[in-house]
# Entry
Amino acid sequence: MSGKIKTPSMLQSLLPLAVLILLLTLNVKFFRDDTLSGANQIALILAAAVAGIIAVALGHKWLDIRDKVIKGIGTAMPAILILFLIGSLAGTWMISGVVPMLIYYGLEILHPKIFLFASVFICSLVSVSTGSSWSTVATIGVALLGIGKALGFNEAMIAGAIISGAYFGDKMSPLSDTTNLAPAVAGTDLFTHVRYMVITTGPSWIITLIIFLFIGFLRDHTDSATSAAAVQAAIKAKFNITPVLLIVPAMLIYIIVKKVPPLPSLLAGTLLGALCAVIFQPHILQEVAATDGSYLKQAYIAVTKTMFGSVAVTTGDASVDELMKTKGMAGMLNTVWLIICAMVFGGIMEASGMLKTITGKLMRFVHNAGTLVGSTVATCLFFNVTASDQYLAIVVPGRMFAKKFRDMGFKPELLSRTLEDSGTVTSVLVPWNTCGATQSSVLGVSTWAYAPYCFFNIISPFMSVFIASMNIKIRRYTPEEHAKALEAADLEDREIIIDRGVE
# Structure
């Protein structure tokens, strides 16, 4: 063997992806809603094995591929740790009465006809305030899911409304990591980026609100009042419901708004929930602990069990009992397993150059603003499917297309907007993506089930392409600005070459 590394062909690059799609299709057919328990993980590993064999045949060293895979798993660790803390937060918020309280009062104020509309709006507001779709879904989203189920709504539809609102806020908030990442990659500033996104994001959000409002008014709500009253009665009979518990979500939102990082924020929210459980729900803790001894001992056992494992609070009402179940950190293990397997697949595909080969072919179809934006959108979606990470779906296409946008005379905010319109919002629609896997676990609804109802996430990439194709407010350089931009880019490229030569 000469040691020379060959560039993968298009056929070679598509083969692992074809294997993955085939296996995932079989999993849906044979395992139905239980694909997350291991079937999809095996599919990703087998597809990764095919990619690995091709990569070695092309001349790549296995140790180099392995290092790339390990690096990819390392980038996913913050998401994994956040996932574990979300599991524990959900547990303490349940036994403390925070989630039951939000459901109880939510049923008082949210009319069934406007519930879905209100869910999108509320999640949008919270997510803009916090900058985090994950925190929004894990807190207010879980409560809204309980309210919606009590009102008789399909859980997939409710999840779609929650995610639509949460990802609108994540996309538009200056506090969001992706909202800061996209302009940094494209080469523009944060507030120019946010203002420019309004052109595509605003119509997508308004259309989403109209759709959910339309669904709410068309639906028959005859039994909703009776169902809501029964749920409220069951909750009040089991939990000490008090407005004081509102302090917990309010404090968490305040902490996040103050730009405290996600991990300490979620830990603080978990501990606040545990404290409220000890103060307000001693009978629940005694029931969960299921042991004799002092209250201090029972409280410690119950809180700890809730943070790490499955806990079910029985109310005597079967429909309400379904809402009062949590799985703790242990309930997130299948999702963590999925994320790790996805990182293995994505790492091998990237290390072998297969992702670069596939996306490079898209450049052939770029002729104007519409086709350029369309190619970028397709590439971001492709990376969300193959690399299984929204950050990679923003960074890699951003680097790939930056020169093309600049050479064609488009300002960088067009690129940054396109990255957000596609890379950020479509990540949650892919079951094995870190975002899709996480939200599915948190809400207890499969990605395949809720994805058709994530109208904002579906509309956004199409809106981005449509606006660009119609040439609506497309920002271009003036001839003088374009010349300066090209000159600056050329200088930067030369400096990089010199630096590498010195090394």
Residues 495-503 have pLDDT under 50 and may be disordered.
